[in-house]
Amino acid sequence: MKPAFYVTTPIYYVNDVPHIGHAYTTLAADVLARYKRLKGFDVFFLTGTDEHGQKVEKAATAAGETPLELADRVMKRFQSLWEKLEISHTDFIRTTQERHKKGVSVLFERVMEKGDIYLGEYEDWYCTPCETFWTETQLIDYKCPDCNRPTEKLKEESYFFRMSKYQDALLAHIEANPDFIQPKSRRNEIISFVKEGLRDLSVSRTTFSWGIPVPGNDKHVVYVWFDALTNYITALGYPEEGGNFDKYWPCDVHLIGKDILRFHTVYWPTFLMAAGLPIPKRVFAHGWWTVEGQKMSKSLQNVVEPNMLVDKYGVDAVRYFLLREVPFGLDGDFSHQALVHRINSDLANDLGNLLNRSTAMLGKYFGGVLQTPGEETELDKAYREKTAAMIGQVDNFIEEMAFSRALQAIWEVISAGNKYIDETAPWTLAKDPEQRERLSTVMYYMLESQRVVYTLLSAFMPKTAQKGLCCLGWPEEASAEGLAWGGLKPGTTIAKAEALFPRIEEKAE
Ligand code: ME8
């Protein structure tokens, strides 16, 4: 039986079209999912769309559509982008689906039956874009402290969740599980927030109707965050026992942006505690992308559209760039110039060139037929050991969600490959008939190390990895077994590789 692994992305609002921020989280989740599959895990990878709430209702009105028409239209844009980016999700959940609505009602009812949801009255300052209530003291000049937009005072009958009751239990959980909230800076932020005291949380609305009705009182709709967070279990079939829910819950990691950390590490775990359900093992909040130094926004017209990037640079270049450029967890800045630079230096020069020159040499010296390697020298040994060490390093880095460091570790072996060629100088060996065996060994090490490199790269750049492996006479899919040294069989014919990544003129950008 394969061990289970469950990874999720946020479910994205349908009032906005997908941009690189959404692509980023989803790509990271995809790399993790592909990597875990490679390592033999049974992976459930969930993404989807968040379709209820006032924000969506307002956007639909503005577009002259019903909320569901808007959701149907925008949801397809997310799905087609995921296809284009080669996202390998297991399921795509929409909060308007019956399976989800049923699960949310049951969860709400169960918490209510327990006495942890009660009817009260609410009066506070509401930020519509953030769907969040604030106390007067939290406001900055009567504006939302998160987004700096105006808030309005709302009074309504509301159901409340007794979040205050779970303050100590949550704090104890965070303290007992140092990996629950990552990175560490985010964990500290949440610890301080919880220590300041948790208020009961309003979990229903009466001022609009686009949502899931509160069980037994359809004047109210369930608060959009109670609704949305529950997707992580309704997609597994909750409330049904057995099946996927038992297999995959609690989740191994919720990947999110830092903007929605509090919802995932305060609200969500306390809802689950109240329902008597296990808490996710880990929540990892990555950093924020700006564009050429500025916040991405519709009004600045600087939103980077991932479809356009893929059309222009290719899917794997985009996948590589987003995960390589910025340490996961830190903020990053997008620029075409940086992307083109990465393509030219890392992909065309280092990676592509190594494959190209090594397969060309095999063609020239041995008619493209891989020879049995001879005795191993110190130089060969160092190169083989560096290749083997990379496997463990990548594993550790991916475990820490340090995707850019994992790629760096892979690139160190690629650079070592280029250096190995320079040091062994196959062109000199080729001139000496006495050195045929030595030349065979060099060729074998050069190509075999790359086979291991492409096997690991399959998590990051699936198409390129497949091309590379195929080129190296390895027609099988990348697998954990393929990480062992010695996979390439002498006698295999290896043709000269085409350029994997053509260079891009930097000036033109
Ligand atoms: O918050 N940089 O949906 P959302 C990096 N529906 N990541 C970014 C980003 C940026 N500039 N912009 C967006 C919601 N993201 C809720 C979630 S989950 C139960 C409900 C990514 O459409 C990042 O993952 O506003 C962020 O957390 C998410 O998109 C917000 O997506």
UniProtKB/TrEMBL annotation:
Keyword DNA repair: no
Keywords: Aminoacyl-tRNA synthetase, ATP-binding, Cytoplasm, Ligase, Metal-binding, Nucleotide-binding, Protein biosynthesis, Zinc
Co-factor remark: Binds 1 zinc ion per subunit.
Chain positions of motif 'HIGH' region: 12-22
Residues spanned by motif 'KMSKS' region: 295-299
Cofactor: Zn(2+)
InterPro entries membership: Anticodon_Met, Met-tRNA_synth, Met-tRNA_synth_2, Methionyl/Leucyl_tRNA_Synth, MetRS_core, Rossmann-like_a/b/a_fold, tRNAsynth_Ia_anticodon-bd
Catalytic activities: tRNA(Met) + L-methionine + ATP = L-methionyl-tRNA(Met) + AMP + diphosphate
Pfam assignment, any one: tRNA-synt_1g
This protein's record includes keyword Isomerase: no
Origin: domain of life: Bacteria
Binding, Zn(2+): C127, C130, C144, C147
Similarity field: Belongs to the class-I aminoacyl-tRNA synthetase family. MetG type 2A subfamily.
Purpose of the protein: Is required not only for elongation of protein synthesis but also for the initiation of all mRNA translation through initiator tRNA(fMet) aminoacylation.
Subunit annotation: Monomer.
Name of the protein in question: Methionine--tRNA ligase
Organism field: Geomonas propionica
Upper lineage: Bacteria, Pseudomonadati, Thermodesulfobacteriota, Desulfuromonadia, Geobacterales
